[in-house]
Amino acid sequence: LHMVLQGDALQCYQRIFTLTMKMRLVVDLLDLCLARSNGVRATSGGGLGYTMRFFAAHFMYYLQVDVYDTHFHQLMRDSNGAGDFAQVVRAHRNFITQLANATFLDDTATHDCLERVLLCCLRFVGVAMLEAEDADAKGDGGWGDTAAETRMIERDFFKDVGLLFQLLRKSDAKALVMKLDYNHFFSTKINAL
Length: 193
Prior knowledge:
The protein is an all-alpha fold. It has 7 helices and no strands. The protein has helices spanning 7-36, 48-80, 85-102, 108-138, 147-170, 174-180, 185-191. α1 packs parallel to α3 (85-102) and α5 (147-170) crosses α7.
């Protein structure tokens, strides 16, 4: 096993699992935030929470189905068809390389941009939770102090998503952009900035 899982492979797995857990955390926190608002409003940002949730959930789906499942099944086919152990090791190295490429871990600009998008989502959750606590404490809407911050988060979110889409279009991830922006919602918002 140590021949297959060498240091670089373990580091790559750690980075992949970290990205996956971040995406899962963001989706779950956005779900919690939206559930707390009872679906009536998504804080003073209107539909921003739902938009962020859509983005994060669909990106998570891309990772799970289009990347992990697809490449894992290819690894299994290659491993089952291998004539010797060296071919299994080669298949695993190809698998790791494909995962790193498909999750944008090796593309620093794209990965950093995705991290900024996730940070915007976490900022939104923080503001929404503060707003909900403030509303509970005051017994009113609690909208005043957080509206300006929410507008800044929305601007940053769509700016970062726009940059991410540009970077993805330049790579071979145009299909991912199409999945995330199939109805041109994001493009419309980005162009309105």
